[in-house]
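Collaborator request, handled under Task 6.
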Amino acid sequence: MPATHLTSDNFQKSVEDAKGVVFVDFFATWCGPCQMAAPIVDKMAEDYADKVAILKVDVDQAREPAMKYNVMSIPTFIVFKDGKEVDRQVGFPGEAALKAMIDKA
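Structure tokens returned to the collaborator:
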């Protein structure tokens, strides 16, 4: 089950209004490192299916959330807890580092 793609319309409900931990991958289809991260993010969506919401935002399709959270370069991974940003990683650090972000939250 791949990660769910968000739009500007459902970002607030899915992330800012959500309870618990939400991991958001801000990406673009033309971004090389984003393409490398994509299968790992999708695998994490399976691994954490019952514990954490793993979501993706295409910055070309959903500009508002990207601008609101000052996503200047991609990929950017942000962990939210109960609607508040608790961790951020700019660039693709590898699977272990992404999982560590979630486990820390």
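The cover message to the collaborator said: "Helices lie at 8-16, 32-47, 63-68, 95-104. The mean pLDDT is 95. Please let us know whether this matches your experimental observations."
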